[in-house]
Structures are given as structure tokens and as C-alpha cells.
């Protein structure tokens, strides 16, 4: 684990995607591996977060020079809206570092 993912085993969790907001990259039923030690949204990437409404996997980006600090939360599926939150309102659970799909 340490060599492949550059992470400690105790910092890794596997969860299952529920929903289509991240399609085509992540689909409902996919399993993702998250590194809970990676809780900083710079550089941008796909994170598992608590956004104030629920636990979701989304693309998270920092809004440069925002005061207070804001982040943009995006779905990859264009059917879903992008939204902003104050960074302090969002609890980043971890960065997605791997995904698996059923064939």
C-alpha cells in the first residue's frame, strides 16, 4: 500500500459511489479508494467531502484570492450544477486516489 499509493494503510478507506453526478469518470456502484490524510484541496482533484448536505464525491477547486476562502464543488456530469461554499463550511474527508468498476 505504502509503495503503490504512497499512503499509510490506516489512511485509506474504500467506499462505493451512489449516483451519477460524476459520470463518466465515476459511476454508481464503482468503488473508490480515498486517502484521508489528503484533506487539502490544492491541487484540485476529486475528493470525498461533507458539503453541508451530505457525503459526496466531487471535483473540488480553490477560488484564487477569495476572501473568505471559497471552493468550487463540481460534478463531472453536466446535468448537475456547480456550486461554491466557504472553505470552512466543507469538511474534506479525503482525496480519491483510485477507482474500480465492475465489468
List the helices and strands and how they pair.
Layout lengths: L1 H4 L6 E5 L14 E5 L9 E6 L4 E8 L7 E5 L8 E4 L4 E10 L3
Antiparallel strand pairs: 1-2, 2-7, 3-4, 3-7, 4-5, 5-6
Q: Can you tell me about this structure?
A:
- The protein contains one helix and seven strands.
- It has 103 residues and is mostly beta strands.
- A seven-stranded antiparallel beta sheet has the order 1-2-7-3-4-5-6, with no helix packed on it.
- A hairpin with an 8-residue loop joins β5 and β6.
- The longest helix has 4 residues.
- The radius of gyration is 14 Å and the shape is globular.
- Order of strands in the sheet with the most strands? 1-2-7-3-4-5-6
Please outline the major beta sheet.
Answer: 7 strands, antiparallel
Under CATH, the homologous superfamily reads: Umud Fragment, subunit A
Strand content range: 35-45%
Structure annotation, total helices: 1
| Beta-strand segment tally | 7
In brief:
Helices cover 4% and strands 42% of the residues. With 103 residues, it is mainly beta. The chain has a seven-stranded antiparallel beta sheet, with no helix packed on it.
Please describe the structure with a list of short key phrases separated by commas or semicolons:
103 residues, mainly beta, Umud Fragment, subunit A, 7-stranded antiparallel beta sheet, 7 strands, 4% helix
Amino acid at each position: 500500500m505504502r509503495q503503490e499509493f504512497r499512503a499509510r494503510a490506516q489512511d485509506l478507506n474504500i467506499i462505493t459511489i451512489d449516483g451519477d453526478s460524476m459520470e463518466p469518470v465515476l459511476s454508481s456502484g464503482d468503488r473508490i479508494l480515498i486517502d484521508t490524510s489528503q484533506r487539502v484541496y490544492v491541487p484540485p482533484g476529486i475528493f470525498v467531502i461533507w458539503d453541508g448536505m451530505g457525503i459526496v464525491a466531487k471535483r473540488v477547486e480553490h477560488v484564487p484570492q477569495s476572501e473568505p476562502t471559497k471552493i468550487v464543488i463540481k460534478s463531472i456530469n453536466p446535468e448537475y450544477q456547480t456550486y461554491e461554499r466557504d472553505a470552512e463550511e466543507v469538511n474534506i474527508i479525503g482525496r480519491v486516489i483510485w477507482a474500480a468498476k465492475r465489468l
